[in-house]
C-alpha cells in the first residue's frame, strides 16, 4: 500500500485533468475575477513529486525517518507531501494553532529527524528550541533567492530540487496496511495533544469511504479549507481548490475569496468546519439582501458540503442551506483525528431532529458509514483491556461512544498510558474509546451528548446525585434569543458539586434586564428533565474557544473562572 498509488493511476488515466489550484495572495485586488491561481494537472503533480522524491533522498533523507511538516497550503505543499509518501518518509502533521507549549511537547514526543517549514516556522524553531535533541536535517520552503543552502540551516527546497538531476520515474515505497504512514497530532482543544499513528490501511479506508459513502467522483472539484483533507482530492481523482485563507484560523477567512474560488472552478464539493459554515452563510445571505448575487451564484455548482470538526448548529446549517441548490446536501460527519469519518447525516434529516435537540435530546450525528461499528458503554475512567458485548448499553442509555473500523487508529505515538485508557482489544483489532458521550436510538442513529470530561456529577440539597451532560443542557438555554451560547461547568458549593451554566449574551443587557433573563433561564431549567436542578448562572463576556473551530469551548477554564466568581 501507498497513498501515492492513486495519484500515479490518475496521472495515467486523466493526465491533463486539474489536480490542484491554489489562490495566490495578492496585496491589491482590482476585482474577484482578477484573482490569480497556481495550477497543476495530475501528470504534473506526479512528475514533480517524483523529481522531489529523488531530491530528498539525494539530500541524505532515508525511508522511515520522521519529518515535521510546517508548510502553508501551496503547490509546494502538495508536491512535497506526495514526495514524502513516495519515499516512505513519515510526515508529522502539527497544528500551529495549538500554542507554543503544546508544539514543543509534540516535538519532544515525536522526536523528528527532519524539519520542513516556511522561514517563519524555522525562525520559531530556532527561537524556541524545537527538536534540538532529534533534528538532523533542515529544509526551508520559500525564500528561494537564498540559493540551495538556507540561512536557517540545511537546504532551500525549490533551489535544491532545481539543481537535482531528473532521474525518471521514482519507485515509490510499498507497505503493509498496518505500517505507519504518518503521525497526526490532535489539536489539543479538548486536552493534551497526542500523536495519532496513521497506518496506510487507515488512509485507504478513508479514501474508500469518501468514494463510496460520500459518492465523490473522478473529475469533481473540491473547495478545500483543511490542508490534510485537501490531499485526499488528488487521491480521489478530484481537484483540490485552495482559497487564500489561514487554515489554522478558518473563522478569519474572507468569504468573498472563497466564493470567488468556488465560482471560478465550479466546485461541486466543500470540506468545511461549522464555524466557516456560519460565516459563509451569514455573508451569502447578506449579499442576497444587498441585491448582490456573488455568493448565491458562486454556490450553484455545489453538490455536497462535508462538515466536520465540531457539531454544526442547526441554525447555521439552515442558513447556509438557503444558498445551495435544492438538490445539494450538507453532510455532517462525526469523528475525530483518531477516527474519521464514522457516521454522517444530511441536513434534511438533521432538520427533522431539531425539536428533539432543542428539548435536550442531544445532537443527532446519523448512522455509521459502511464498515464502522459504533457501540455505547457505561461511563468509567478505568482502562478496559478486553472487549465484551456485555459492555454495551441498551438504546437510549447514555454512555461512552466506542468505535471499530478500518479508519480507526490502533494506537497513539509513544503514549502507552493514553492507549491504556482509550483502546480496547477485540480479537485482532482495536476498538477506540472516543471520550465522547452519547446514545444509540432504536433506529441505530447516534446522538451526541458532549465530552466525557465535560459531564457534571452533582448533588442536590438532599444529597441525591444527578448527572448533567453538556450538549443536552446547553441546547436548552441556547434556544433563548438573548443567549449566544452557554456552557455547563461544575462548581463546589458548601462542599457539594453543583451544576452551573455560564452564559455568553447575544447582545448587551442592563443589570435589570439580566435579572429578568436569569428568572427566565431558571424557569427553562425547571421545564426539562435534563436541566432540572440547575439554579446557578453566571454571565461571561466572551467564552474561551479553540482557534480552529471557534466552537469548542474551553470549559475547564470557565470552571476555574466560575469557581472564583462564586467565592467573591
From TrEMBL:
InterPro entries for the chain: AMP-binding_CS (IPR020845), AMP-dep_synth/lig_dom (IPR000873), ANL_N_sf (IPR042099), ATP-dep_AMP-bd_enzyme (IPR050237), OlefBLtnSynShew (IPR054910)
Signal peptide limits: none
Coiled coil: none
Protein name: AMP-binding protein
Domain AMP-dependent synthetase/ligase per the UniProt entry, residue ranges: 37-413
Organism taxonomic ancestry: Bacteria, Pseudomonadati, Pseudomonadota, Gammaproteobacteria, Alteromonadales
PANTHER family tied to this protein: LONG-CHAIN-FATTY-ACID--COA LIGASE (PTHR43767), NONRIBOSOMAL PEPTIDE SYNTHASE PES1 (EUROFUNG)-RELATED (PTHR43767:SF1)
Domain of life (superkingdom): Bacteria
